[in-house]
Design brief:
83 residues, alpha+beta, Multidrug-efflux Transporter Regulator, Chain: A, Domain 2, 3-stranded antiparallel β-sheet, 4 helices
Length: 83
């Protein structure tokens, strides 16, 4: 039997990124966020491939931790102050 790919729910991603689930739901509205590969629990729970989430993290590294998000926010703020 082949190995089943690792999948994540929004709750898993929330834990992984230390980010509220609502923030992740907002990111889902963007075109770049990976699409779910399957829905379970009568369509209430989306499953995402871990490999798709890892690619997203490579493209947007600041999402992966509160410290990275804070550094990015300070950087953007510093650019706004230069105007």
């Amino acid at each position: 039997m082949s190995e089943f790919p690792k999948v994540l729910t929004i709750a898993d991603i929330s834990t992984r990124w230390q980010m509220p689930r609502q923030s992740i739901h907002e990111k889902k509205e963007g075109n770049d966020f990976p699409k779910p590969i399957q829905y379970v629990a009568n369509g209430r729970t989306a499953l995402y491939l871990e490999s798709d989430i890892e690619k997203y993290e490579e493209q947007y590294p600041w999402v992966s931790s509160p410290e990275r998000r804070k550094r990015r926010q300070r950087f953007i703020w510093s650019l706004m102050q230069d105007d």
